[in-house]
């Protein structure tokens, strides 16, 4: 995590069902407990999610198979926006590889016991670097332009995380969507992953319909009706579809618990 002008390395381990151990380098771990709670979503009450998921047979089985999953967030809204741009219209595997290469080219490694860590580059770094650094990582010319434009918006104050955090979800998302390169889908992802807003779901995602068919066992899932039933916790469906698809593709037991009605 970026801390002041430096970087602090955090290590988190779940010791048992109710205990998470936090360690950090060169600082008092208790100072970073609130940040870790926010990043991991440990204090988010999901009782409404389970109650609503229970009313949909295939989703009930999926939620039961993934019980304990909490809604994680990126450390900053900037990082969430950058990831949303990179992940547009390509597979999560390709996007993750591209983002990793870009991060490693723009940021120096931080030493930690037995681990090579790289902190996510702040907006200024994405503006300072050469285009070639980003092209070599696999980013297209359009995405480089959109990343730079978004970074500039954060630097000049057109996007202020604290300000957006105080706005209703629809208004905050609309403000983000004013930035070139951040459309409704990316704004929803940024709201969910950056501000922890569970009342949004990234629509117009070509992978959603395929994943719903895979996990529900039918192509007749009405997305709008499903989201309406999930109401203010619809964002949890995003995480469950992602994890459920990964589990299904790897033949994890979650797939066998939630194949169809």
Keyphrases for this structure?
single chain; two-stranded antiparallel sheet; 3 domains; disordered C terminus; 6 strands; 10% strand; mainly alpha; 15 helices; 261 residues; Endonuclease III, domain 1
Looking at CATH, the homologous superfamily of the largest domain is Hypothetical protein, domain 2
Number of helices: 15
At CATH level 3, the topology of the largest domain is Endonuclease III, domain 1
Poorly predicted regions are 254-261
Number of extended strands:
6
Number of domains: 3
Radius of gyration: 19 Å
What is the structural class? mainly alpha
Instruction: Look at the structure and give the mean pLDDT.
Output: 89
CATH first level of the largest domain: Mainly Alpha
CATH architecture of the largest domain, please? Orthogonal Bundle
Oligomer: single chain
Strand order of the largest sheet: 1-2
N-C termini distance:
43 Å
* Secondary-structure element series: EEEEHHHHHEEHHHHHHHHHH
Helix-residue proportion: 40-55%
Largest sheet properties: 2 strands, antiparallel
User: What would the principal axes of the Cα set say about the shape?
Assistant: globular
């Amino acid at each position: 995590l970026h801390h002041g002008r430096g970087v602090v390395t955090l290590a988190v381990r779940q010791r048992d069902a109710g205990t998470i151990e936090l360690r950090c380098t060169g600082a008092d771990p208790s100072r970073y407990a609130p940040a870790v709670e926010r990043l991991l979503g440990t204090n988010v009450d999901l009782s409404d999610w389970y109650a609503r998921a229970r009313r949909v047979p295939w989703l009930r089985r999926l939620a039961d198979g993934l019980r304990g999953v909490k809604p994680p967030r990126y450390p900053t809204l900037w990082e969430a926006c950058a990831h949303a741009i990179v992940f547009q219209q390509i597979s999560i595997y390709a996007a993750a590889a591209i983002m990793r290469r870009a991060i490693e080219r723009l940021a120096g490694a931080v030493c930690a016991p037995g681990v090579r860590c790289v902190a996510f580059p702040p907006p200024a770094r994405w503006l300072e670097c050469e285009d070639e650094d980003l092209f070599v990582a696999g980013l297209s010319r359009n995405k480089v332009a959109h990343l730079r434009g978004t970074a500039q918006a954060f630097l000049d104050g057109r996007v202020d995380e604290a300000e957006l955090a105080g706005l209703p979800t629809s208004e905050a998302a609309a403000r983000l969507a004013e930035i070139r390169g951040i459309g409704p889908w990316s704004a929803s992802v940024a709201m969910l992953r950056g501000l922890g807003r569970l009342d949004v779901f990234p629509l117009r995602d070509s992978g959603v319909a395929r994943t719903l068919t895979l996990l529900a066992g039918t192509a007749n899932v009405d997305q709008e009706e499903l989201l309406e039933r999930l109401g203010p916790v619809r964002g949890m469906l995003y995480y469950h579809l992602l994890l459920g698809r990964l589990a299904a593709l790897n033949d994890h037991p979650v797939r066998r618990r939630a194949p169809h009605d």
